[in-house]
Amino acid sequence: MRTPVILVGVDGSTESNAALRWALQESARFGARVEAMLAYHREPVFVPATSMGLHPYGERPQRHPAQELHDAVEQARATVPGAPDVAETVVVGDAAGHLAEASKHAALLVIGTHGRGALTQALLGGVAAKCLKHAECPVVVIPPRAMR
User: Which residue has the higher pLDDT, 110 or 126?
Assistant: First the structure.
């Protein structure tokens, strides 16, 4: 028998961090492992010609999405006693599409929502609405302020 998977969408928001903490807490009840997924869109890059030693964007480099995900996972694990290890996946593209595809192997998909109105989200096609429509496993939606 395979170990069930709880898949969590992480985007760095307070709501997604709450979803991750919820999934970590529930993983013990289900005997499940947790997978956290962060999706991002690659920005087009334009680097102007510069003279040696001058960086066109200053001294502050951008943080890599994998580091952002890892930091979010470690912060969540620190708040949940006995939290299991978390598999971390970073993908490029549409978050809802990747989460729906990954839900094929999951027992549960957990996402946070910004809660800007369920009807608005459904009409505009937010990530939560798309996941509810296309996921191939049960979906848990953590509302704003649910786990402060």
Answer: 110
Average pLDDT over residues 12-30: 91
| SS3 labels along 49-108 | CCCCCCCCCCCCCCCCHHHHHHHHHHHHHHHCCCCCCEEEEEEECCHHHHHHHHHHHCCE
What sign results for the dihedral spanned by CA atoms 86, 141, 93, 46?
negative
Sole residue written with tokens 């496993």: 137
Walk me through the domains of the chain, giving residue ranges and CATH numbers: 5-142 (3.40.50.620)
| 66 contacts 90 by C-beta, under 8 angstroms | yes
pLDDT tens per residue, range 79-95: 999 899 999 999 999 99
Task: Give the C-alpha separation, 61 to 3, whole Å.
Answer: 39
